[in-house]
Write a structure and sequence with these properties.
Blueprint (H helix, E strand, L loop, with lengths): L1 H24 L7 H25 L7 H25 L1 H4 L10 H21 L2
Helix pairs in contact: 1-2, 2-3, 3-5
Length: 127
Amino acid sequence: MNRQIIITASIFGLSAVILGAFGAHALKESLSPSSLESWKTAVSYQFYHTLALLFLSNFSKYRSRSIRFAYWSFTLGMLIFSGSIYLLSTTELSKINFSFLGPVTPLGGLLLILGWLFLLFAALKNK
């Protein structure tokens, strides 16, 4: 599981750097200030939870159910939360109406919260 967590974190970290740079340079002139701010929020949350995954990899040797749940919660949470914000913030540019994703974003946030809760459970169980 440790290897899987580190690989996942590496992919999320790499894509966060690329998406952050893309937003700062390529999208700066194309998006409204509020859309660009949303993009930055998605990048920030992706970075925070990439670091959480790296931290989680230190616990993975204990083969805890809480670790697996935290891993999947963080991973799916980042995909849903940040992914939906990336798409929603580029609606004006792509001319594709992603408004149906608005209600999905909080589900991703809930998964991120659950990831932290499962990490807490894993730490409390670890002696």
